[in-house]
Amino acid sequence: MTERPAQRTPNRQLAALIAEAGFSNAGLARRVDQLGLEHGLDLRYDKTSVTRWLRGQQPRGTTPALIAEVFTRRLGRRLTAQDLGLDACAPVYAGLEFAATPEEAVDIVSGLWRKDSGSHAELRKIAFTPAGLVVPSRDWLIGRADDRVGRAEPANRVPPQGRPAVPRQRGQAERGPGQKVTGGDISALRSVGELFRTLDNAYGGGHARQALVRYLEHETEPMLRGTYGEQTGRRLFAAAADLTRLAGWTSYDIAAHGLAQRYFVQALRLSQAAGDRAYGSYVLMTMSRQAVYLGHGREAVQLARVAQQGVGTSAPPVVQALLHSVEARAHGVLGEVRACTSALVRAERALEAARAGDEVPYWARFFDEAQLADEFGHAHRDLQQFRAAAQHAERSLQLRAPAFARSRLFCRVVLASARLGLGELDQACVLGAEAAGQAAEMRSVRAVEYVRDFERRLEPYKDAAPVRGYRDKVAAYG
Question: pLDDT digit string (tens) for 184-241?
Fold first, then answer.
């Protein structure tokens, strides 16, 4: 006598969530497949697969975790496989998760570093997802610093292969997990950050991005898995957050936008472990800038406002100015003249209130009159207020130090676009050609895209002599 298969119980939890999310069965399957691609998985689910899940069949492998992440992104609240009536499985991290604990944060970000170090060509193809901004920014806003981040060495820890634990010796080349983190280690992380920041500003994000990622994998991860007290741990997480944000910034500059988004989300979580609310607001500002660049103005406004809410009115005037200018740029890309102008005025007043003796975080010290003029120039260009854009862009170029080569290039393109908008074709082409020459010397996709945007604006004048001269100059740059 043959045994009949056990009767499956319909999955009512999953059915209820599908209804709440407004998914069709085919739509859910498509989103699970898309999320799988972010992890390098070729899943090929369809509406029939979802029908089987609803009838009680358990999906295999890491799929329950992927399905849970799809619903988390859609509904804006953290959901697990069990919440969907599915079997628990090992977490599968896409890099957009806002970790529940510092330990999980280290697991997620170190996994991202390792993937990027080993297969960055694939990761660079990951798409940016506006929906992936909602949960992390909300969790950061309502969250607070972790109660404890310190990691004590277990008294009875047995090292690999049964060898006795050996403290790191002076001159030892490699750091291993479990070693004590010192103040010197953290100073080294800070110095490395300054070095890579300088390279990025001068030569573009592509110049040394991969070296930074390898440094994070081989030096920073072992520190995070080392031993340290609470105070040292907070400083360590703060330094790791800064380097991770910088890895995101350099990824953004080479147009690896999905990868950059993941780095920013993880930097935000590390800043929470550090207990550094102000730095978290800076990460959100960075995320807002990326959203502006990609044309997601509404999300950019929301990120800027979450940053303002999170840091409150206690931040130094320079930080307040930075916060308001980022919001202004978001309103500018949406064409919201009144809101943009209001935010620019707030930024200007905040910077005027700054005093020489103010304690300004290291990451905000770049924000000065030159940067404010740059923000004004960009915003007025986006609003097609070309005379004001030209005045502010010229002022920024007069004030901006040569070390900020990429920022100067961007501002030169803004000035060229403003001159074009004012009908000054000859001057616009001269400025545009200068910017194109600089872009050819950099490893920055953003620099190239700025130049291409200017060239699109030139299209109506393509037969004019100044434009032909521009094209000849650019062709000579290769």
Answer: 999 999 999 999 999 999 999 999 999 999 999 999 999 999 999 999 999 999 999 9
Is residue 441 within 8 Å of residue 207, measured between CB atoms?
A: no
Which are the contacts of 271, defined by CB distance < 8 A and separation ≥ 6? Answer: 237, 238, 241, 277, 279, 280, 283
**Cα 141 from Cα 124, distance rounded (Å):** 29
* Continuous H helices in 277-382: 277-293, 297-311, 317-333, 337-353, 369-382
- Return the sign of the alpha-carbon dihedral for residues 187, 190, 192, 198: negative
What type of residue sits at position 146?
Answer: D
Structure token pair of residue 139:
């969790």
41 vs 387 pLDDT, higher one = 387
**Structure tokens that stand for 70 in this block:** 């799809």
Sign of CA dihedral 201, 203, 209, 215: negative
HEC string for 99-165: CCCHHHHHHHHHHHHHHHHHHHHHHCCCCCCHHHHHHHHHHHHHCCCCCCCCECCCCCCCCHHHCCC
In whole angstroms, give the CA distance from residue 219 to residue 65.
Answer: 30
CA torsion 34-36-41-46 (nearest 10°) is -70
Question: What letter does residue 227 receive in the DSSP assignment?
Answer: B
**C-alpha–C-alpha distance, residues 215 and 192, integer Å:** 9
Q: Which residues contact 298 (CB under 8 A, 6 or more apart)?
A: 334
With CA atoms as reference, report the closest residue to 126 among 97, 99, 96, 104.
96
Question: From CA 15, how far away is CA 21, in angstroms rounded?
Answer: 10
Query: Quick count: other Cβ atoms within 10 Å of Cβ 2?
Result: 4
Q: What is the dihedral of CA 311, 317, 319, 325, to 10 degrees?
A: 110
The pLDDT of residue 121 is above 90:
no
Q: What's the token pair of residue 71?
A: 């619903």
Answer yes or no: are the C-beta atoms of 96 and 132 closer than 8 Å: yes
As to burial, measured by CB atoms within 10 angstroms (0-12 exposed, 13-18 middle, 19+ buried), residue 215 is buried
